[in-house]
Amino acid sequence: MSRLDELLAAQAPWASADRHWPLTPFELFMWLDDRPQYPLVYQINLKFAGSIDADAMRDAWRFALARHPLLRATIRQTKNGAEWHAARGGGTELIVLSKQAAEQAGQVSIDLTTSPGLHGWLCETAVGWDVRMLYHHACCDGQGTRLFLQDLVLAYSVFIGSIAEPDPFFSLDVSHLERRAEYGATVGLNESLWRKLKEALQFNFAPLQPAALDKAQENRLARSSASRSTTGFCAERLEPAEVELWQDPQRRQGATLNDMAIAVLFSVLGDWQREHGLRPRDMLRIAVPFDLRSREDERMPAANRFTYTFLNRRLSDCSDWRALLPGVQSEMQFFRQSRFGVEFLDGLKAAAGWPRLLRWGVQRRHCFATAVLTNLSDPSRRLRKRLKVDDDGFMWLGEAQCYEMDILTPPLRPGTRWGLGIFEYAGRLTVTFRYDTTAMSSAAAESILQRYLAVWRSSLAASSAIPGA
Question: Residue 321: is its pLDDT beyond 60?
Fold first, then answer.
């Protein structure tokens, strides 16, 4: 028996048989919402300086896929509805590419009826190797991605002998996937049907305004092809000295990092909309993922275990920073305490009873959010207890230093032309901006990202000058 087979028998006995799960309403929503121009995918890249054993990484990939069956499953239509089918030994193989062929990585369209939702490439570079992963959002969320990454790098470390502990893996139990659609009720809210109906109507039919078109791109929107992705990307990485200032709650006036990120996004969105002639009463909405995991979910393999919360502001409300940040802070605290975001899942659960109606609803070119903001924190934080970490905070796999992590998230939707992402690695904080290329040029996107950082920096500087702040 090979070392891989030994680990699979001990750590993923469920991988030896076919597995089936009905799609949850949220997974069904994610699957139906996919389209060529706005694919519901996100990408994770780990960049290594030094040598990587390709055979060991392939085996580590197989091991990690076995531990997380939804990442190797495809969707089948049955008489009872759509279901995940995770075949024994299924999943994609890690593709190894030379430097000359590395540009092919990530160039794949994922159809979940014929292909699993995770694809990976090991790409040779000038300084070492990159591990690039493309995920479909219907089968996994950001925290689920972290679980897969943990298994991948720990298994690789075991295979190359750089980790002495025979069982370094975090505990998982496939039976926990049975309750991935379960969530607690709201707390302290009026549970009347009238209130819920009113909230649903306001959410679905509020006259939201998408982010205004960059004037240089106005003609491109009409010419855009319906058969290709229209997502652009840019990012800025902050070094540890500046990150310490960003992490200081006093400088953020007691607000959480997420509160601050949302308020800054409203401020920048407001400036952009005003510059492009929108009216003060026009409505903006930011969608924010809300993690539903509790301690009971720590052993659940990769899955979607979150909902969305939505914050609305009039354009006129986005110009007063002294009112904007406290308002966002108060609203987010209410969302956390009341679990208000699960009402979005309640709505999907009700709509899932009419799949054709749900498909029609999600496929409309309707603006459900002006922008989306995702904060993934530090995906590597638990690994630091098991892997070598150098003085600069970088993880090592054997002789290879993971000197950089890139996360291209979140995906965009029709009408949602801005997507901000925040994550940490090795004491560095990265702010990413995904944008609709039919709505703005790359130069305009870079300008928006720099403006976002400038507003955040100026607000921190201003708060440090307030006595007692």
Answer: yes
- The model's pLDDT over 53-94, given as tens digits with 9 standing for 90+, comes to 999 999 999 999 999 999 999 999 988 889 999 999 889 999
Q: What percent of the chain has pLDDT over 70?
A: 93
SS3 call for 275 = helix
Decide: 401 and 284 in contact? Cβ < 8 Å: no
The whole-number pLDDT of residue 7 equals 93
Closest CA to 414 of 26, 39, 41: 39
Contact present, 4 and 62 (Cβ < 8 Å) = yes
Q: What is the pLDDT of residue 51?
A: 96
User: Check: CATH 3.40.50.300 for 206-400+408-464?
Assistant: no
Reply yes or no on whether the pLDDT at 222 is more than 50.
no
Mean pLDDT of 416-428: 95
Reported for 452-458, long-range contacts at CB under 8 A and 24+ positions apart, including other chains, are 452/264, 452/265, 452/268, 452/420, 453/236, 455/264, 455/267, 455/268, 456/246, 456/260, 456/261, 456/264
The amino acid at 255: A
Q: Which of 301, 24, 347 is nearest to 182 (CA)?
A: 24
Taking only the tens place, the pLDDT of each residue in 186-214 is 887 777 776 777 777 677 667 788 999 98
Q: Are 287 and 310 in contact (CB under 8 A)?
A: yes
- Structure tokens of 288? 């924010």
Average pLDDT, the chain: 90
Q: List, in sequence order, every residue forming a beta bridge with 120; answer none if it has no partner.
A: 133
pTM, whole model, 2 decimals? 0.92
**Where exactly are the structural domains of the chain?**
3-166, 206-400+408-464
| pLDDT exceeds 90 at position 220 | no
Q: What is the pLDDT at residue 355? A: 76
Pairing, β 118-124 against β 128-136: antiparallel
Q: Is 226 helix (H, G, I), strand (E, B) or coil?
A: coil
- Asked, colleague to colleague, whether 3-166 and 206-400+408-464 share their fold, the answer is yes
Tell me the longest C-alpha to C-alpha distance in the chain.
69
Closest to 425 (Cα-Cα) out of 384, 372, 374, 373: 384
Return the H-helix or E-strand segment holding 240: helix 240-246
Residue position matching structure tokens 């690039």: 132
Distance CA 144, CA 337 (A): 24
Give the full edge-to-edge strand order of the sheet including 418-425: 231-238, 428-436, 418-425, 371-375, 283-291, 306-314
Fold type of domain 3-166: Chloramphenicol Acetyltransferase (3.30.559)
DSSP character at residue 437: T
